[in-house]
């Protein structure tokens, strides 16, 4: 096995039922259900106009500035897959542009997360396939490798394994590990219900705000006399 230059098959993927249920939930609430300890960092910016994303990861580890393995990953992807690329965060050369995106759309790819740069930013925004990247440059990529497909990768400390759930919306992207996806979903749906109840109370002006002063007193904050 050639470590650093290899292509593997994905052996597992989150179920379509889980994907559909996560797709209806805000990324922020999923993050809360994971104790706010996981994230890919603020460098990943939404490059499409609007819309959310949810799907199983195909992972790519690319040499900075080289997109040979990303091309191969698009050819391997099936409908609903999310392609996640560890390009080292390098912004010197773009890893994909309009033509690659068009091919991915034809294959039914659900979205991209690229820890690197893209180009043809206006066309990508217009196509509106969910895509997050670290930056934009007109300088094109090389196609020499090496790289890996369907190996564990990490984006700013967020570990993604092949088949993990990857979600994204206006607040950013998040990977939910395959093994705990059902547990995280249950906690997130419970939080969503609690927030809906609180929103109804806010709308009716019946929400209880006493917890703020109680917390301040517990922390030893001096409050003005009532």
From TrEMBL:
Q: Coiled coil: which residue ranges? A: none
Q: What CDD domains does this protein map onto?
A: RraA_family (cd16841)
Q: Name one Pfam family in it.
A: RraA-like
Q: Which Gene3D superfamilies match?
A: Ribonuclease E inhibitor RraA/RraA-like
Look up the record and name the cofactor or cofactors this protein needs: a divalent metal cation
Lineage: superkingdom: Bacteria
Q: Please identify the protein, giving its name as recorded.
A: Putative 4-hydroxy-4-methyl-2-oxoglutarate aldolase
């Amino acid at each position: 096995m050639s470590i650093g230059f290899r292509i593997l098959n994905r052996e597992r993927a989150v179920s379509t039922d889980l994907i559909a249920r996560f797709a209806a939930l805000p990324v922020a609430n999923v993050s809360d259900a994971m104790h706010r300890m996981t994230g890919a960092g603020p460098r990943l910016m939404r490059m499409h106009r609007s819309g959310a994303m949810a799907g199983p990861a195909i992972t790519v580890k690319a040499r900075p500035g080289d997109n040979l393995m990303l091309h191969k990953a698009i050819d391997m992807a099936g409908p609903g897959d999310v392609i996640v690329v560890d390009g080292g965060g390098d912004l010197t050369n773009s890893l994909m542009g309009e033509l690659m995106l068009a091919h991915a759309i034809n294959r039914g790819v659900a979205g991209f997360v690229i820890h690197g740069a893209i180009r043809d930013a206006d066309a990508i925004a217009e196509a509106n396939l969910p895509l997050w990247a670290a930056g934009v440059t007109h300088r094109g990529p090389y196609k020499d490798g090496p790289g890996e497909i369907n190996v564990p990768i990490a984006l700013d400390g967020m570990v993604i394994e092949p088949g993990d759930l990857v979600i994204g919306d206006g607040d950013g992207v998040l990977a939910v590990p395959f093994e705990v996806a059902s547990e995280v979903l249950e906690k997130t749906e419970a939080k969503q219900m609690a927030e809906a109840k609180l929103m109804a109370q806010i709308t009716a002006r019946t929400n209880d705000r006493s917890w703020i002063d109680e917390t301040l007193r517990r922390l030893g904050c001096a409050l003005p006399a009532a």
